[in-house]
Amino acid sequence: MYPLIILDELINRCPKLINEIGREQLTQFILNRSHCLLSNSNSVVCSLLEKFSLNTNYDLIKEISSMSMKQNKKNHRTQVEIIDCGPSGLLLGALLFRPSIDSIIIEEQSRSDVESNIRAGVLEQSIIDLLDEIDINERVLKEGIIQRCINIQFNGERISVPITEYTEGKVSTFYSQNLVVQDLIESRLKTNQRLWFDVEYARIERHDKTDDGQRPLIKFRRRNSSKEEFIECDFIAGCDGGASKCCRHSIPKDEIRTIRKSYPYSWLSILVDSPPDGYEVVYSFDKTDGFALQSLRSPTKSRYHLQVSVDDKLEDWPDERIWSQLNKRLTLKDKSWKLNEGAIIHGALFPVRTSMITPMQYKRLFLVGDAAHIVPPITAKGLNVAVKDARILAEAIIDVYDNNKFDKLNNYTDKCLIHISEAEEFATYMTSLLHKLDLSNENNEINEFEEILQRARQQQSQQSSALRRLIAQMFVSLINLENILHC
Ligand SMILES: Cc1cc2nc3c(=O)[nH]c(=O)nc-3n(C[C@H](O)[C@H](O)[C@H](O)COP(=O)(O)OP(=O)(O)OC[C@H]3O[C@@H](n4cnc5c(N)ncnc54)[C@H](O)[C@@H]3O)c2cc1C
After folding, report:
1. Residue 426 located in a structural domain
2. Among residues 52, 172, 379, 412, which is most buried (max CB within 10 A)?
């Protein structure tokens, strides 16, 4: 039947072909090649055009090619299709590999781009434990830098929060995101698991298993190739990050809800080619200029953030202005501390916001990490939360294959919400504690009241060691991931 569909299509869409070639010859040509039409109709159509010296009709080739692929959607088969190779997708693949669950990861960027994107860099203890569990912890244990303390300061007066003293041995570790990604990619490729970079136009064609046995289906093309490929799978993990061009957007709008909060300021974030003095992390509130943060990414790199106006552009912030503001906001009243300036290797400006998608699942598609939620960056939780989603999803999928039980999968969103809401709450608390308030409200009483509340919170953290203990514990996370998995 398939060659006849091609023939019909050709006749309907390109009646001139019949005039040029003749119906009989055209039919014979297509029938003779019916065996290879199924594997590569594009080349057959091209050879048809070539053989009969016809003008190349690109649209027609594209359409026929896609028609042929629809007849042959089983180009690739896997159990779990993971859309992207950020930390959450890679970790999910690694967790599934242990009980021999097959996955394919497709990624839009090149390997070198993915491996060089530093972004996050603070890992909670539970993430280190997870890397230990899957035996991908050698480098992080060697090169990661334990975060022993954070400093919080208000208008030049600094208090120290000794994390290791307050958290019964749990710590955070500085280890930049690109190293986590490199370690996971290396381990995946070493074990010959499929991971394809430079993939374009990934689209989810089918989200569910159908009554006639068809499975979820993803279509994509490799860069510089016009050939469409298809992956048939049992489950789709949507790990394609905050922009989530493929996964989140494939869900009908009325099936999910986005809960959002936007703050009336942005962050200017720079990556600097030198470490902060003493590897110190400093959170600073300055009542005139606003928030600043000094953090670490590696023994040789630091990251700084500044609260800036939502209307600001990167060009409004030349290097001299950035360093002058960092110096001003981070300095101590007694001038006993000095900023360690260095070369700025990257700068970005982004709005401070939070968002949560609910539910995080649609049929057999499960959103993971930034594709489902954005946590305000102040507490460095984004990567940690993304990886915890992956852990919860892995556990649920394993339960399906091992025990044919779907309860954990059905409860995926609820389980994730336990740790996501903890991270969101802590980030919201720290954001409101340390940013200069937006006082554009026309009602001055409201402005004054907000300022009184903020001052009260700042005093509490200066005076109460119980509150500092809580802040330290929130940094390494109060909620035990294992408890979520088994609840
Ligand atoms: C400047 C900055 C600093 C940060 N600092 C911290 C920090 O200190 N601590 C912390 O925990 N978090 C931090 N974060 C957040 C953290 O980087 C993210 O939360 C984390 O990367 C989320 O991981 P993910 O796997 O969900 O998504 P991502 O890491 O965003 O990965 C998504 C991947 O999907 C790919 N992709 C997108 N669309 C497609 C498609 N259609 N087809 C195929 N592939 C696709 C992308 O190329 C990308 O590789 C920071 C973020 C930024 C921007």
Report:
1. yes
2. 172
Pick the last residue of a domain from 22, 37, 71: 71
Compute the distance between CA of residue 49 and CA of residue 102 in angstroms, rounded to an integer.
40
Which own/partner pairs from 428-432 qualify as long-range (CB within 8 Å, at least 24 positions apart)? Answer: 428/261, 428/354, 428/376, 430/283, 430/378, 430/379, 430/471, 431/263, 431/352, 431/376, 431/378, 432/457
User: Are 393 and 366 contacting, i.e. CB atoms less than 8 angstroms apart?
Assistant: yes
Domain count, the chain: 2
The overall longest dimension of the chain from CA atoms, in Å, is 94
Task: Choose which residue among 104, 106, 108 to substitute to test ligand 1 binding: the one with the highest number of ligand atoms within 8 A of its C-beta.
Answer: 108
Which pLDDT tens digit goes with each residue over 16-65? Answer: 667 777 777 777 766 665 443 433 444 455 456 555 655 545 455 555 54
| Nearest atom within ligand 1 for CA of residue 380 | 9
What predicted TM-score, i.e. pTM, was given to this entire model?
0.83
Whole-number Å distance, alpha carbon 119 to ligand 1 midpoint, is: 8
284 vs 294: CA distance, rounded Å = 9
